[in-house]
Write a structure and sequence with these properties.
- With 86 residues, the protein is of the alpha+beta class.
- It is 41% helix and 27% strand.
- Strands 2-1-4-3 form a 4-stranded antiparallel beta sheet, covered by helices on one side.
- The radius of gyration is 13 Å and the shape is globular.
- The termini are close together.
Length: 86
Amino acid sequence: MMNYAAGWNIPGYLPENEPAKFKTFEEAKNYIIEELFRYRHELYDAGELDDAEAEQVEIEILLLEKLEDEFAFKLGGYRFWVNLLY
């Protein structure tokens, strides 16, 4: 059985929360997509993201929807990732 961990953190620092764990890659990936939607809306509504940065979040979400394996990427001041647990 494969298990995946998903989370985000400021590069160089430990995550503020324990990584979420999922049985499938799709569940882990969807968790990160939901977190990106939340990240975008909360920061954009608070005026902390400009239009270009908000658009970049949307682009990342579209790219993630096509992925089928582990990933990590930096967006804004955070690193988002999904890793296979061994």
